[in-house]
Amino acid sequence: MPLLSSISRKMKVGLLLAHLSPESTILEVGSGSGWLNDELSKHGYRATTLDINEPADIVCDINDWKQTNIKPHEFDVVVAYELIEHVDCIDSLKDLCKKGGLIMLSSPHPHWDWTMKILEALHLNQKRTSPHINLIDFKKIDLPIINSKRPMFIHQVAIFKNA
What pTM value is reported for the model? Predict the structure, then answer.
């Protein structure tokens, strides 16, 4: 795991844990290898995972979630790390999260994605899995921000309240 990605993961997990309660139902979208669920399990939590590839619990595109057994507004917390820069899915995340629930996102900041490419080339950051065609400044997302961080100004991490 590249150094900056490892540091970023620890920060994101810590921020998320500060907002969870023992009864939280969690959906992780874009779960990849399942590292977040592994970290959450160390703290007594379990996330349902959704990704376009196995080993996710639910294998589908996030915007095709209605074709699964998931019910609308089923989860207290929906987490999508390093996903929204690849696909426009904010509406789907809102539809999956309970009203008043939390949506946690992380993504490169649109103005600094070029820096992320340099860090990737230097093997300091995780290599992108597909093009960043949907970069968005989190301040432009129409949801109240509960907590946010801008590590090194190039990355953005935020927890939103689903209105």
Answer: 0.94
